[in-house]
From TrEMBL:
InterPro entries: Ankyrin_rpt (IPR002110), Ankyrin_rpt-contain_sf (IPR036770). SUPFAM superfamilies: Ankyrin repeat. PROSITE patterns: ANK_REP_REGION, ANK_REPEAT. Keywords: ANK repeat. This is Ankyrin. ANK repeats lie at residues 34-62.
Length: 85
């Protein structure tokens, strides 16, 4: 389990990306987008924040495919994403 301070840093980074780039769906070559990366890492709070901000669950990019595919190792995150469809 990740320590709370580290989780806060991740959340602040996501918020900063959103503010600086005006979108939660910004894609990178490796990770895809923030939702895919957060889903793969199992960061439930970040996944929920991105969903609340309108992140595209069906976006495909990077090594993870979609966010649902990225969350394949984390049943709770996968369920969050399926519920948000």
């Amino acid at each position: 389990m990740e320590d709370p301070e580290s989780q806060d840093i991740h959340e602040l980074t996501v918020v900063r990306i959103d503010v600086n780039h005006g979108t939660v769906n910004r894609q990178t070559a490796f990770y895809g987008d923030a939702l895919q990366a957060a889903s793969c890492a199992g960061h439930e709070n970040i996944v929920q924040m991105l969903l609340d901000k309108g992140a595209n669950i069906n976006a495909t990019a990077g090594v993870f495919g979609t966010a649902i595919e990225a969350a394949s190792g984390n049943a709770r995150v996968r369920q969050m994403l399926l519920h948000a469809l």
